[in-house]
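[job 0412] stage=fold_complex status=start
inputs:
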Amino acid sequence: MEKAKKRRFGLIATIILALAIVLGLFWAQQTVAHNAKHQDTLTRVKKSGKIVWGTKADTKLFGLMDTKTGQSEGFDVDMAKAVTKQIGKQIGEKLTPSFVTVSTASKIQLLKNTNIDGVFGVMTITPERAKIVDFSQPYFPAGQSLLVKKDSGIKSVNDLNDPSKTVLVVVGTTAAQNIKKFAPKAKTIALQDYASAMQALKAGQGQAISTDNAILYGLATENPDYQVVGGTLTNGPYGAAFDHDQKPMVDQVNQAINTMKKNGVYNQLIKKWFGQVPGLDWHDLEVHE
Amino acid sequence: MSLFEQNFSVFLQGFGHTLLASIFALVGSLILGTIFAIMQVTNSRTARSIGNIYVQVFRNIPLLIITLFFYLAVAKVIKMTGFTAGTIALTLYTSAFIAESVRAGILSIEAGQMEGARANGLTFGQAMRVIILPQAFKVAIPSLGNQFINLVKNSSILAFVGGLDLMYQGNIVAANSFDTFTTYIIIGLFYLVITLPLSYYIQHLEHKLKKNA
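[job 0412] stage=fold_complex status=done
writing structure:
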């Protein structure tokens, strides 16, 4: 190619690329604006006849993927199923639950993008989160605790408050933020999920995992060399989460949970999932109204 | 923007770790890659097969698995942080690709040059260093550039093992601020701060060497 031709080709290519980028940005902005617009979850649920729940796939007892069926199983999953059924009765329509696996980091974004309608995902109710999403009433009484090796000699969070100690947490959990208050001198390393945190603890990358007792009991069930110590540092019950300003949907869910607590469905699920956990008296979790 | 200002020190810390890991891995993988490339073109069958096995192993296993191997398994024997484990894994993984680029460069030089050098009394090592490698690198530069840019982006693997890099800090900021979109855009721009100058430098090098040729 001669020089002038080459230059013209370069110029045209640059213009096309620039146009593509500008159009792409424009489209992205439109999509974001569209997603930000208020969409009523309950209306959407009624229209589609199903509730899409985000649940965890890596959390024993609450939402753990069964590799044979490819479905998550646990207390959260069963709660979501029961709540869906109950809401169906309340609004007089047949609703089916469907499930999407979410991670601790992705669940709020997925709610905001309306990829999912609600989350049952071991999610602690906090004031900061309540500004971004709507929470149902608490459905599980959890609190932050510690998991350590049985022969480690660590008895409480005070034993970890030392620069030589590393506490493992999971990105995006309330425990990740709280541990700095309870053990300000300790180093913290945030990992992607509970399975990685457990592996890292076993490999000696840290001396303890700190997160909700409910999850730690699940990890201790699978790893008998490890135990939960130090009682609960915080009181952080779990709630189901929805997009912001979804009062109609949240009201339905709260009513459903109330009914389930009264008619015994809730206690059945508690017994099913927490009846066999070593070191935990599941009767403490039962609700009597 | 307030997200950027509030978390500036966090981003900067991540940027520093990413830059450091990239520099270590870049130097390390260039040295290792060249050694294994030369091993693959020697006359010794043992050296050739060792070089070949090394390249095949590290080129064909996902980087995440190599990283987790160092973080979870090797760390039980030799204490190392996530940063160290990630940087070592990144170095080994990239060196396999660099070995292939350099080997291709060496093979593009006519066999006659090596024969001539040897006939004039140079040892294999001397001939490689003075005659073959300088020409081979010239040929390999575009493909090496690709590997270096991939290396910088692949350093985000450190996030999976608590390596304190840009991606790790980004994940934490995104989780705490709930503003995933903005956070990852900022993180992306930080990566560009490293990769764009690197791209230009490689291009510049390419042009310069072409002129000299």
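[job 0412] summary: Chain B has a mean pLDDT of 92.
[job 0412] exit 0
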